[in-house]
Design brief:
Oligomer: heterodimer
Distance between the termini of chain B: 36 Å
CATH topology of chain A: Peroxisomal Thiolase, Chain A, domain 1
Strand content of chain A: 15-25%
Largest interface: A-B, 37 and 39 residues
Strand order of the largest sheet of chain B: 6-5-4-7-8
CATH class of chain B: Mainly Beta
Pfam families (chain A): Thiolase_C_1, Thiolase_N
Order of helices and strands of chain A: EHEHEHEHHHHEEEHEHEHHHHEE
Bound molecules: zinc ion
Number of strands of chain A: 11
CATH topology of chain B: OB fold (Dihydrolipoamide Acetyltransferase, E2P)
Number of domains of chain A: 1
Strand content of chain B: 35-45%
CATH superfamily of chain A: Thiolase/Chalcone synthase
Number of helices of chain A: 13
Structural class of chain A: alpha/beta
InterPro entries (chain A): Thiolase (IPR002155), Thiolase-like (IPR016039), Thiolase_C_2 (IPR055140), Thiolase_N (IPR020616)
InterPro entries (chain B): ChsH2_C (IPR002878), ChsH2_Znr (IPR022002), NA-bd_OB-fold (IPR012340), Thioester_dehydratase-like (IPR052513)
Shape of chain B: globular
Shape of chain A: globular
Largest sheet of chain B: 5 strands, antiparallel
Number of strands of chain B: 8
Radius of gyration of chain B: 16 Å
Pfam families (chain B): OB_ChsH2_C (PF01796), zf-ChsH2 (PF12172)
Radius of gyration of chain A: 19 Å
GO molecular function (chain A): acetyl-CoA C-acyltransferase activity
CATH architecture of chain A: 3-Layer(aba) Sandwich
CATH architecture of chain B: Beta Barrel
Chain lengths: 398, 138
Amino acid sequence: MANLGSTNKANKLSGKVAIVGVADTEVGVLPDRTPMELCVEAALKAIGDAGLKKSDIDGILTCNSMVQPLMYHAEAMAEYLQIFPRYCMAVGAGGGTTFTAIHHAASAIATGMADVIVISMADTMRSGLSREQALKVQASTGHPEFEQPYGPTVPAYYALIAQAHMAEFGTTQEQLAAIAVSTRQHAALNPAAQMRDLITVEDVLASRMIADPLHLLDCSLVSDGGSAIVMCSAERAADLPHDPVYILGAGEGHSHEHISAARSLTTSAAKEAGERAYNMSGLKPSDMDFAQLYDCFTPTVLVELEDLGFCAKGEGGAFVDSGALAPGGSLPVNTHGGLLSHSHPGNPGSMFALTESVWQLRHTAGERQIPNARHGLVHAQGGIMSSHTALVLSREVS
Amino acid sequence: MNAPEIAKILPPDTLLSRPFWEGCRQQELRLQHCADCHQFQFYPRIVCSHCDGSDLSWRKVTGKGRVASFTIVRRGISRAYEAPYIVALIDLDEGPRMMSSVVGTEPETVTIGDIVEVQFNQWGEDYLMPVFQKLEQI
Ligand SMILES: [Zn+2]
């Protein structure tokens, strides 16, 4: 049995750290901006949102850009902004980088490595990638010797998971399509989202097949954009302008790098990540008012709903059919529009799920506000369902 | 010299896995076998992933297995890969799982659970890659 970490009472992290500032840049097609410019813009806006000054920041976490890779990315941002931190690092865990960085930043604050940390991530995957870089990005996820020669594309890896789930549990293409549909319904309520026109299950099934059973509309967007947050201790957060959003639970799970070496195609390490995060928080799946789940392709959401405890293994399709994920449903999922409809600028992608969660828990999410939202679960994964982090966020410290 | 995007991707040469590729050139699929726990492993490693033993040797295996999952790639990774083609995960009879392709049949006729057998297709000038064919059709 996996070690699921310390419980709420014993751990040193739950409720000790808060998110106090958040900001997104514009997303979509931004050909005139470099990744570093977007990163800097997001960081400054988030610092301003927190009611703080540049000189208050003593910790910086970033992720490297694929378009503009830098040897010392976090140091480059610190230099650009003329911030001189005592904690400074670029984190790399693929799509899971975002919340892995949050987990580390929370620990750094709890242990005194830094007092106020800005986490800023941006990339320009839509406008900035050369053809050669794009091919390299496609191939880079596979094992160079025993996977890449067969020509797997990124959608193909996730299609292997979808096919296995369909064969094992009878999940249908329509159920996968319904995830893209409900995500778009959320995006339609978000003026910042890249794709806001409503779609139907029929539209998804009629879109071009990319890698069976995944159609074009089962795949996330390719975008430019950046997003940042500011974190500090719960005590310090009390003096700042916005309602703090507390990190009650954080957990990770790591099961493989290559899909051909995965323990299971249909159960992921999101299960351990979720159990560890719930365990630390003292809350359970049914306490969550919303969930933001990594949706690079529709089948990831299905597997995550099961692994994160919102329904039993194999019942993800039926759970989607119940309408739970849509606006007004019992578990609204990806309320900003997700990677499928809001934006997906590469590794920074799920930062937008985090800023959205903070707005939901501050009760400032406008037309898409979930009434009286108290707790939310956010999840991101990197690789091919390889590296998972889950966070339980709350506007209350219990 | 072909432009990079129109050449098939070739496995990088590593000392450890040369016996695997040499086997492919001789039309045989070889896996590492552990003398301590008597299990096979794939991909090749310097230790046994089951028991940490290091007494590993290469053995010819049956080349038979079943399709654990697959997808039909409709939009190829480059012009060197003519879509549609299959990317599959094959569970070998000896235990290990490997990524490969299923060839020699209409892609739409492949299903999870199909029994398959290895064959070797030319990949660039120097490599033969193990791919699989549905056994009923051989
Ligand atoms: Zn062994």
